[in-house]
Specification:
single chain, 167 residues, alpha+beta, Immunoglobulin-like, five-stranded mixed sheet, four-stranded mixed sheet, 2 helices, elongated, binds dinuclear copper ion
Length: 167
Amino acid sequence: MQLIVLAISLVAMALIAFTFLSAARAATLPAVVPRTDPEARRRRVILGLAALGVIVTLLSLRPWPHTIPGTAAVVNVSGGQFYWEIDTDTVPLGEPVAFHAHTVDVTHGFGVMDPAGTILFQTQAMPGYVNQVSHTFETPGTYRVVCLEYCGIAHHDMLNEFTVAAR
Ligand code: CUA
């Protein structure tokens, strides 16, 4: 199945590349474009906006939640059908906590909800990998762990919780 999808993707990519190359070949430009040429000015504006878009996108990705800043505590999380195992029931308040998540069977979505029921952060949890996500809790209370990736008949039942408290 994966090979068929790969083959279809490669054919589609080849078609798109061929279309672009054909268009580029058809749009032959004079070797020297005067600066007053409106077409060239339009092209410079588009390139400038594209560059600006790339820069804004890169800058807005900070802070990147998957780089771990001076971690104060590590919490190991293991998922399986249909449970979350957490190696602690209390995590520190106001300090960066790194969650290391993996699973023993299929892909799950490790998600943490605050006491009001708002999703704070999530990361994929997969067998054979340890994914890391860091968070600094600002409010003490009971936080719920949920599964955010459909993983089977009792996906909705993959619940656990931990307490956030000052050390
Ligand atoms: Cu595990 Cu959904």
